[in-house]
Amino acid sequence: MFSSNNSLRRRLPVWVALILAMTVCTFGALAYWMAWRATEQAAWVRVRSVADRFAQTTRVGMQDRVVQAQTVARDPRIVAFVSTGRDSVSAREALAVMGPDTGLLVSTGIRRLDGTPLLAMNRRLPPAPVTPPALVDSGRVGQMFNSGGTAMYETLAPVRRDGRTVAHVVSVR
């Protein structure tokens, strides 16, 4: 009735091995997926935590820098320099209030509305990131951008003449 090739002695170990292999593969795949998901969630928690700490640490300092940039942008020496292009020494003196080069300050200067530098202190003023901030009508901190492998951000304040924005005082950190 049973041939030697179809005996239970030969089929049972094969079926047990197949069931065992499927079980191990299924649980292995589930374990891998759960570990991947837990690692991904932990990484996002860490990134959010670091971003929140960075924001809390720099919030007051950035607000102070915006106020400082607005004050410098209203300085008559800056407005006169932007209007005439003369007396850069007085404009440099006004820009010097923005602070000494501490290593974090890349450059301080004045940019035209199209983003081209008009005057730079410390080092060369990097080009405006992405799009020129022509519509900026109040002081602000710009988005972070990459320049030569370094993360930077700008503090901008408009220089106004006759109620119109004609340039921006820029501090790049």
How would you concisely characterize the structure shown here?
With 173 residues, the chain is α+β, with helices and mostly antiparallel strands. The chain is 49% helix and 21% strand.
Write the layout of secondary structure elements.
Layout: H1 8-74, H2 76-84, H3 88-95, E1 107-112, E2 117-121, E3 140-141, E4 145-147, E5 150-152, E6 154-161, E7 164-172
Helix pairs in contact: 2-3
Q: What report would you give on this structure?
A:
This protein is an alpha+beta fold. It contains 3 helices and 7 strands. The chain has helices at 8-74, 76-84, 88-95; strands spanning 107-112, 117-121, 140-141, 145-147, 150-152, 154-161, 164-172. The strands form 2 sheets. It has a 5-stranded antiparallel sheet. A two-stranded antiparallel sheet has the order 4-5. Helix 2 packs across helix 3 (88-95). The protein is rod-shaped and about 105 Å long.
Question: Which short descriptors sum up this protein?
Answer:
about 170 residues; alpha+beta; 5-stranded antiparallel β-sheet; 3 helices; rod-shaped
Q: What structural category characterises the helix and strand content?
A: alpha+beta
Percent of residues in helices comes to 40-55%
Mean pLDDT: 80
Instruction: Give the N-terminus to C-terminus distance in angstroms.
Output: 88 Å
Please tell me what the overall shape is. rod-shaped
The radius of gyration is 31 Å
- Roughly what fraction of the amino acids lie in strands? 15-25%
Main pleated sheet: 5 strands, antiparallel
Number of helices: 3
Low-pLDDT stretches: none
Strand order of the largest sheet: 2-1-7-6-3
Total count of strands: 7
Order of helices and strands: HHHEEEEEEE
